[in-house]
Amino acid sequence: MTPFQYERAATAPDAVRMASNSASAKYLGGGTNLVDLMRETIETPERLVDVSGLSRTIETRPDGSLLIGAAATNTALASDLTVRRDFPLLARAILAGASGQIRNMATVGGNILQRTRCAYFYDDAARCNKREPGAGCDALDGFNRIHAILGASPACVATHPSDMCVALVALDAVVHLEGANGTRRIPLADLHRLPEGRPDIETVLQPHELITAVEIPALSFARRSTYRKVRDRASYAFALVSVGAALDLSEDGSVRDIRLALGGVAHKPWRALKAEDALRGQPATEANFRAAAEAELTDAAPLRDNAFKVELARRTITAVLSELKGDAA
Amino acid sequence: MRFTINDKPVEAEFDPRTSLLDLLRDHLGLTGSKKGCNQGACGACTVLVDGERINSCLALAVQYQGRAITTVEGLGQTGSLHPLQQAFVEHDGFQCGYCTPGQLCSAIGMAGEAARGVPSVVTADLGDETVTLSHDELRERMSGNLCRCGAYNGIIDAITETFAADGSQKGDAGARKAA
């Protein structure tokens, strides 16, 4: 680990001010990813600004929306009774991630900004465009079983590892930011970038811009929602494929509205808009669920070792929607 | 910088790069907490901070100033073991013992979470505020602690006896003591 100065911020503007004095400054939440990356010298900040003492309030607003302080821990958010009742896919997604210890440490802001677990990104003997722009990508022709099938580029095939973000992107979450030029809000769907030619630039955040809160708009039918994660072992493993979904059925059995997102398949949490569009207004049948999944996966471009993810995603989408409809799956 | 460690006030000066685990082991001589993977994968370093379990290897000590930290050294003493420690002995909850301090702290933190109604991914009804520590719940909730000897069955039996079997009374007492 390279040396750094540690400072603890009392307010969000303080944090931004403290970070702005150093080009390489990083914000520290729970440290579960950043400390590990610093130990591997993948991250070498000269200054750490501790933002774990900023807002961790989980506020239910009169209109049914939620405002979550970015320093709320993963455990706190998944335990919140309103989240469990009104947005069960969010509680289930968080609980599907990491371990009890890590969920107690990890913050909501840090979860959003965690970095890929691509083994080539961590291995300093491997080429990685994300770690060293222009170096090349050893995952592209390497052991790429866990890598992306959607939205990847010749420069990077890594996936975003968060479960929580899959639920948030399905729920149209909005991220509140504090920066040198004031505050702004952007949809979570627009926060993370696809890799294109610059996989080292992972978000649209400005230098030292800080996530202060996450807002989840009210969604009445989110009570009928869930999250399913398929992984190599039953617990404490990253997703091969995950599906977060909320389903609103009309009395005639057709799909009035739907939210669908995928994890483990792309460089960002993947909102499945093509599948949503294919299903709105259609009868909620297994055949239509499968057709919608296929519509989403038309663009899938699997690598040598991960073609199984296309079929796995198709089946998992179909199974999750069948489960939400009330059919055993 | 000041901490409360196992109910005693402690003052220490150290480089900000020091993990909480290294502070405990290398600076304070509390070598009960173990360094397994040093990257949050194995749980051998688990300690309690204000009663909540964390991986001390991923924690920068500087971030935990002023907090109350409990390590395995604070759970029980020779001749007066914590009920969970006694249960680990009775149920063969270890072989080599390297993961045991982390297992103990993790299980006590886990029991506190269950008492507060924190759900898990295998909890069927998220609306249920009462957690029943079934076999499946325990295995899921303890998945952040690896045991390379494979003493899992004994570990689950010991935790069950302490925190789940005869009502939650004994478990609450154990969780309170650690907190």
TrEMBL record, chain A:
What keywords are assigned to this protein? FAD, Flavoprotein
* Domain FAD-binding PCMH-type per the UniProt entry, residue ranges: 1-221
Entry's Pfam families? Answer: CO_deh_flav_C (PF03450), FAD_binding_5 (PF00941)
Q: Which InterPro entries match?
A: CO_DH_flav_C, CO_DH_flav_C_dom_sf, Diverse_Substr_Oxidored, FAD-bd_PCMH, FAD-bd_PCMH-like_sf, FAD-bd_PCMH_sub1, FAD-bd_PCMH_sub2, Mopterin_DH_FAD-bd
For whether the record's keyword set contains Nucleus, the answer is no
Protein's name in the database: Xanthine dehydrogenase family protein subunit M
UniProtKB/TrEMBL annotation, chain B:
PROSITE patterns in the cross-refs: 2FE2S_FER_1, 2FE2S_FER_2
Coiled-coil segments, which residues? none
User: Which N-terminal residues, if any, form the signal peptide?
Assistant: none
For the 2Fe-2S ferredoxin-type domain, which residue ranges apply? 1-75
Question: Per its record, how is this protein called by name?
Answer: 2Fe-2S iron-sulfur cluster-binding protein
Q: Which domain of life is it from?
A: Bacteria
Among Pfam families, the record links this protein to: Fer2, Fer2_2
- Which terms are listed as keywords in the entry? Iron, Metal-binding, Oxidoreductase
